[in-house]
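Question thread 4412

I'm putting together a teaching handout and wanted feedback from people who do this every day. The idea is simple: show students a protein as raw sequence, then show them the structure tokens that encode its fold, then repeat with a second protein so they can compare. Below is the first pair exactly as I plan to print it.
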Amino acid sequence: MSVFSPKKLYVMTKFGELINVEKPVLIDFYFDWSDDENNLDTLKDVAAALGDKAKVIKIDIKKNEILADTLRVKGNPTFMIYKNGEMKWRQTGEQDANTLIGLVQQYV
């Protein structure tokens, strides 16, 4: 049995609140090592296309190391889709907006 530190417990509780919703949640775990705005534009396009049918969230790996380590995020970027607190899809590497929109729409 693993014991979470108080900080890790807090982080995981907050993450649980974020993903434990009926609509799908697309999360982009990223490490901002370049000035590449391409990924941000992609997520803006995805959010605009999905509207209020889904949530789209960017999480900086460096600023959220406890969460990234707990979820074993190793690549940049790593995308995940959650629904009702359960991971439905995960992929590391660049994805285009249409692919992400299509994937999220499967869980709407």
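The second pair follows. I'd like the answer to focus on this one:
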Amino acid sequence: MTTILPRKLLACFTDDSMKDDNVVSIASRVRKSEAAGRKVSMAFLVLGSVLAFLLRRSLHQVNSRVVARHGLVASLWRARLSITLTREKFGLGLLVVTIALTGCITGPEPSGKGTMSPLEEKGWKVFQREPCFSTCHAQTMLLPVTEDWAGFVPDLRKSPRRTADWYMAYFVNPRAVLPNSFMPSVTYLPDDEIRALIAFLQRLNRGVEIVKPVPVPSAEIPVVGKSRAAYKAGQSIFNTYCVGCHGIAGNGGGSVGQILSPEPRDFTDAAWVTKQSENYLFSVITNGKPDTAMPGFKTILTPLERASVLRYVTYFADPVLKERAEVGLVDQLSQAVK
């Protein structure tokens, strides 16, 4: 059997008279190898981040809504873009790698003003250790902040602010919260590390403005008719983006609903539904609701899609009307009214 281990190193393990100084030598070599490995990893990490940024500019800022709805490959196809790298860009990438390999780059520092708390500091270490940093979100630490925060890998410094329970639900079941997310579940982490990671992530974007929902003019809400086609369109959107929290029955019993506090809204509560105006609810769907896990869908859903899902959730408060819509009788009722 062929081995790639040096003979001298093998001798240390096979020699019955192995001495302590050999063990120390091995440990020293291992530590040096680990340090070199981290330096090389950082080099490729920085290069990948820089090239990703340059590619993003070459891709003419692929529409984040299209990416969220259809995935990266489909978005690139839809945009019919060609990826090109100039000699200057490639040279910049090589320069970054050279700097990293020479040890000038020891690791990025998290953004945010002021000194991190012990909990945030712990979360930062978890963030660096886990694939969060090395696989996806390196640009969050390495590149300047831009206004275009959304996209295939969002800039966590500019993304909307989230509550701790939103992060908890997202960590438990990412696809239940954001159906097209590539984020893996991190339930393998201890509870204290999850809390620390949440504190660190909340630090990153704490400067982002919180938009409070206010009733919008009726003219800003697209008209959605009471038809089976409109019902099915709203149902499809709800089952894709809302069912993880609100549940298939609209009663707040989604797969991650029990994690959230306050609990997701129960749309089967007819008394509550009748008191709400569509002008206000449309604003909530658009911008989210502060101090709750309800996110805004302004960058994910079009105005017509938001109006369609708003129309759909009102059916939960009227089981009879919902049943009629399911079988297509709502079209007949609409025609009878006309």
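Top answer:
Good format. For the second protein you could add a caption like this: Confidence is low (pLDDT under 50) at residues 1-27, 53-85, 96-107. The CA atoms of residues 50 and 93 lie 7 Å apart.
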